[in-house]
């Protein structure tokens, strides 16, 4: 049976990335990306709809995103969707859909950088859902 789980988004980073380390010392960085869709209503009014995506990066890609990304940056993120489930402190079952990124490309120039930093990063390591450290 053939299956595919791939997502590609272009949008603005909505918060400064947050990096943590799992028990084995591997870094994981998460951030949110906002994408906008414009459409016209039946009466001709132009509207904007924003969707938010939670993005998770691992290992070297996590370090690079933590170092170079900031709120407001325009990025291309490629990866796969993952549904994470956990039990909250009040005993409720919670689920969150996240993009596990395999590639992040910075589409805008970093302001006041002056340096010619690499603008595309990718991660080749595959992780299982059990590797996700947060709940």
What do these coordinates show?
The chain has one domain (7-38, 46-131): Nucleic acid-binding proteins (OB fold (Dihydrolipoamide Acetyltransferase, E2P), Beta Barrel), CATH 2.40.50. Helices cover 7% and strands 51% of the residues. By secondary structure, the protein is mainly beta. The longest helix is centred in the middle third of the chain and has 10 residues, at 59-68.
Q: CATH superfamily assignment?
A: Nucleic acid-binding proteins
| CATH-defined architecture | Beta Barrel
* Secondary structure tally, helices: 1
H/E element sequence: EEEEHEEE
CATH classification class: Mainly Beta
| End-to-end separation | 32 Å
State Rg. 17 Å
Query: What structural class do the secondary elements suggest?
Result: mainly beta
CATH topology: OB fold (Dihydrolipoamide Acetyltransferase, E2P)
**Share in helix:** under 10%
Compute the average pLDDT.
Answer: 86
Strand order of the largest sheet: 1-3-4-6-5
Characterize the quaternary organization of these chains. single chain
Number of strands: 7
- The portion of residues forming beta strands comes to over 45%
